Structure formats: structure tokens, C-alpha cells
Amino acid sequence: MTKGKPVSIIMIEDDEGHARLIEKNIRRAGVSNEIIPFANGTDALNYLFGADGSGTVSAGRQLLILLDLNLPDMGGVDILEKVKANTHTKRSPVVVLTTTDDSREIQRCYDLGANVYITKPVDYDGFAHAIRQLGLFFSVIQVPETP
Question: Whole-structure pTM over 0.85, yes or no?
């Protein structure tokens, strides 16, 4: 059985402290995958969908997206919607990391296709545990290749 390409972790998080905490916990969980950080939605969407906006640039990429909902330039829910609506990125798992614990917002994210929803700042141990669980998830995940 051939192993798929390594998964790159796209982290869309504008709070530098949170970004560092997330990365530290991912590394502590033993995950060495490349982490590509973005501090706003515009840059992240440009990376995911390319200059032409079609998303073909992501066709061969194995991505896992860590998404903050509260970004300076656009809502994370809009990004989630765009990612899940695009043929080339819709299979990429999306983990929502946000301060919002509004049950309607959480349900909306799941309805749009989010895989995991983590509220922050959770207590450090809870957060570290959630990230470690993600680490296990990362290590076993095989994002299906598009034919």
C-alpha cells in the first residue's frame, strides 16, 4: 500500500499567541507535518484557490485546515463555506478553533462540513488534549485523492 502525500496543515489564525500555542501543542503531540500559517482569510484563500480562484492549485495537495472564525478581514464561516463548496478542497478536513461557543454557530459550522469544532481559550490541558487527539487524527488520515 502506498502512503499518500504528507498532509500540510493550513493554520488560519490572526492571534499570534494562539497561533504559537496551537503550533507548540501540535509539535508536542509528535506531529511534524508542515504548518503553513495565515493571519487573515484573504491570504489563506489566495493560497487555497490560487490567483484564478478556481482551486486547481490545491488539486494535488493534501491539506488539513485549522480555522479561526474571528478574522480581521472576513468571517471564518465564509471561508469554511468556500472551502467545502470547491471541488479541489471540499475533502480537506477543517478543524474550527474559535472563542465562539454559540450553539447555533457550532451547528452552522458542522452543517457546512466542519470536521471538528474546538472552543478556545479552553483550559490549557483540555486544549493540549484536543490538539493531541488531532495529532493522532493527522497521523492516520489519508485524504482521498481526486481522480
Answer: no
